[in-house]
DNA sequence: TTTT
DNA sequence: TTTT
């Protein structure tokens, strides 16, 4: 269908360390559990309430799997951009079941760590296992020709500047 | 949890007319089925492939329910902004089941029709039942104090209106 | 800065045909003018008002430039995903000026046509020059290893399905 | 124009404390300067490069102004959701100038603090002046009829609350 | 002017 | 079940 968009944006915390598995041909797949929550004040009682929503996030993108494996830990806060997919499976009684996941796959995916890196180190709290602190595009931390800004921002459109922008 | 975001953005087509139900206290709830799809060319065979994803959308917002009821029909193309929610229910065997939906509720929701209105009239294609063609914020088509431009809108922008944009 | 996001999402109409230029080394750059507008009812007078906002969109991505050149025309409705950039330049008096643009560059960009294709043909209305109707990711219409869904959706995670999803 | 979307999503850090002004009729307006940046590795030299982008954010929403005033400080990391607006003004020579801003106004705006609150206390670093740590919808921290979960929330989700998420 |  |  022309003109279709399927996008999910989450900011939340990992409920557990990432689970990394591999396909038969060796490609990694990372599974995350991410909690988002909203708080509001009950209009009747006036008390503060909170509702937490849990999301299944599946990462097929190899670079982002590597990021998840190396840097993410239970408790880490992340920014996620992916798409919604519902997958069909059979339970042990052979009945159809459906599971909806936020899938990070291909160019249209983002995984960014929002925690300061210093959190780690001592103790059991959330955070990262190590350094980290970068944000990674779809292709992971590697070099990416496309990821760079326009070649030399100032000069990048000099050839076009006969045009007065505003 | 502080600093949480849970947002879904869809552009797709309705697979069926909206279903409108009412709560016991009379508030409307609209259910939509929306299809998004992506197409790509198979690298091996070179042929064009397509994968369609179906989304359950539930509208609790009264104004947007009204919009859905009045203007949306099977086939209509819409822009949707809502949040992800997974709901638990019991099947007839008493087993726990889960259903994930895109929920439009509260201020943080958008439903916008993307079809030109002229589509209607002749033929069986998709589109709207009537006029339509506006985009509606969370509070629906009614007047909305918040929807207006900036408080000092006039002083900020009136002078722009005689400006030729490009 | 770790954990940074800079994203703009627009749905609007082209105010003019795209302008395509080329850098000295031959890469295309497309410039679009896109209008978005919001309508509201004036709370004082009760009359319906509308405010149009004009956006400068610059496409550095080659594939998306090709799409813009081939398929977009004045009046076409598009979905745009890019990032905000402010660029400095000197006016004829040598004074610093700034221009803010929505930039489509790299993997994190989307340009999707939202018009049905049939619009074209007769007359001067908006629409596309030709067929079109597809949506294009950052890499344009060409084959893209990443763009495909998971290999054979149904089987794609069979090796993982010892896990009961919910 | 029907079917229009104008949305900006930023995650970045405040370059300075918020500036709060008031309109003649006493409504607050907050101005923020927010930096986003992206990093990449130069393919030629192999060295790590960074490019920072500065954004002007203007908050007309009263509740969010209050949040900005009370909780945000230079260095704080925030999630912002607003819309793009270009405003015309005259410089001292009477020449037309344009300034593009990210505007938070009305229901379609979000300002969420992403820093852990503990940052504060000792030292000069960024962070908040006080507690904070909540995320605020368009209407700010006050009670909001719309912000609550679905009308029939209890029947939809109360049974979830004794559920162990994973 | 921020942040890493 | 939609759409192209």
UniProtKB/TrEMBL annotation, chains A, B, C, D:
<feature type="short sequence motif" description="Important for interaction with partner proteins">
    <location>
        <begin position="161"/>
        <end position="166"/>
    </location>
</feature>
<feature type="region of interest" description="Disordered">
    <location>
        <begin position="115"/>
        <end position="166"/>
    </location>
</feature>
<feature type="DNA-binding region">
    <location>
        <begin position="54"/>
        <end position="60"/>
    </location>
</feature>
<dbReference type="InterPro" id="IPR011344">
    <property type="entry name" value="ssDNA-bd"/>
</dbReference>
<comment type="function">
    <text>Plays an important role in DNA replication, recombination and repair. Binds to ssDNA and to an array of partner proteins to recruit them to their sites of action during DNA metabolism.</text>
</comment>
<dbReference type="InterPro" id="IPR012340">
    <property type="entry name" value="NA-bd_OB-fold"/>
</dbReference>
<keyword id="KW-0238">DNA-binding</keyword>
<keyword id="KW-0233">DNA recombination</keyword>
<dbReference type="InterPro" id="IPR000424">
    <property type="entry name" value="Primosome_PriB/ssb"/>
</dbReference>
<feature type="compositionally biased region" description="Basic and acidic residues">
    <location>
        <begin position="144"/>
        <end position="159"/>
    </location>
</feature>
<keyword id="KW-0227">DNA damage</keyword>
<keyword id="KW-0234">DNA repair</keyword>
<comment type="subunit">
    <text>Homotetramer.</text>
</comment>
<keyword id="KW-0235">DNA replication</keyword>
<feature type="compositionally biased region" description="Gly residues">
    <location>
        <begin position="119"/>
        <end position="135"/>
    </location>
</feature>
<dbReference type="GO" id="GO:0003677">
    <property type="term" value="F:DNA binding"/>
</dbReference>
<dbReference type="Pfam" id="PF00436">
    <property type="entry name" value="SSB"/>
</dbReference>
<protein>
    <recommendedName>
        <fullName>Single-stranded DNA-binding protein</fullName>
    </recommendedName>
</protein>
